[in-house]
Amino acid sequence: MAVELTTEDKLEYNFFPNRSGYFQFRVKAANDAHIALSTAAAEVDPMYEIFIGGWGNSRSIIRKNRTKPDVAEASTPGILNDNEYRGFWIRFGNGSVAAGREGEGQPFVEWRDSENVIVEYVGVCTGWGASGNWIIEQAGSSPSAPPAMGGRGGFSSVCWVPASNGQVPPSSFAGGEDNGEQVYIVRSNFGGGVIPGKLVPSHNVAYVPWGGTENAVPEYEVLCDFNGSWLACNGANIPANAVPAGQSEDGEPLYVGRVVHDGNLTVGKVQPSHGCVYIPYGGQELGFPDYEILVQ
User: Fold this and answer.
1) Which of 9, 159, 182, 219 is within CB 3.0–4.6 Å of 174 for a Cys-Cys bond?
2) CA distance 109 to 104
3) Higher-pLDDT residue of 197, 92
């Protein structure tokens, strides 16, 4: 769901709950579109700030705890425009903070912190002579609805359809194969998180990898109406256009990956902090550092 917002020239943040690890928006401003990543709906430490188009729309920076020196800086002349919307994404989690332009996979500014700050809220504001109009792709109120880049107008078109007991909704996205049978991409609430996994329809259940085990789940959500693709990936090098599909019990964003094992192409979860994809297979949770990741 997109939220439209106008911010005045006040440098006062408007906060939204967001634990997804991803934030996407469009903004129309002459300069100084500011984004805060905070542990509360307020300016409290620890907190990150990303200033896009600061210093007269010439530079973008990342700052921690509202203090100088800035921890990262990039030259970005003309990155904002007060007559047209410009799209951006912010990715955060496991000490990493990155910002990039809509439609581009590589960030224009990024930084890795030795401290792992658990971001709970994202704030936006404008200042230094600029007001702003924003279109914000709002994160879900629960971890079952993380956002993803892509789709109409560059915003999320990822669709998850509830199903159960082996049901395959129309337009389900097939991501693998098990003994000649198509395997579909699912996610399910399990172990305090929302875990990506696989659906083998003939088994009448879906499976998610968690706690070292292949866990059968009778109720799940299936990825539908999706036109993404797969990209070769290694370890924790998550591409910016990877599709967030859930989160761990600790709030870490999880992605969809797949790997060939035992002659089958099996879908599972990518957990960046572990540097691998985990697949549910043969009663076990198996990890692989080299895999394909779902992107959009």
Assistant:
1) 182
2) 12
3) 197
Q: What angle do CA 203, 191, 229 make, to 5 degrees?
A: 60
Helix, coil or strand: residue 114: coil
- Cα distance between residue 138 and residue 294, in whole Å: 22
Question: What distances in angstroms separate CA 25 from CA 225, 245, 254, one per listed residue?
Answer: 22, 19, 21
The SS3 assignment for 295 reads strand
pTM of this structure: 0.55
Angle subtended at Cα 245 by Cα 27 and Cα 144, rounded to the nearest 5 degrees: 90
Helix (H) / strand (E) element for 64: namely: strand 59-64
The strands making up 2-7's β-sheet, listed across from edge to edge, are 2-7, 132-137, 22-29, 86-93, 96-101, 109-112
**Rounded to whole angstroms, what are the CA distances from 20 to 41, 87, 193, 210, 294?**
15, 18, 12, 19, 17
Cα(204)–Cα(129) distance, integer angstroms? 59
- The domains found in the chain, sorted by start residue, are 2-141 (2.60.120.200), 159-295 (no CATH)
Which residues 6+ apart lie within 8 Å of 39 measured at CB?
A: 46, 47, 117, 118, 119, 120, 121
Q: Which two tokens stand for residue 153?
A: 């107008």
Give the separation between CA 274 and CA 267, rounded to whole angstroms: 17
54-77 pLDDT tens trace = 999 999 999 999 999 999 999 999
- pLDDT, the chain, mean: 89
Tell me which residue of 294, 296, 291 sits closest to 278, measured CA to CA.
291
Query: Cα separation of 109 and 156, whole Å?
Result: 23
Q: State the Cα–Cα distance between residues 30 and 11, nearest whole angstrom.
A: 14
| Element holding 27 (H helix, E strand) | strand 22-29
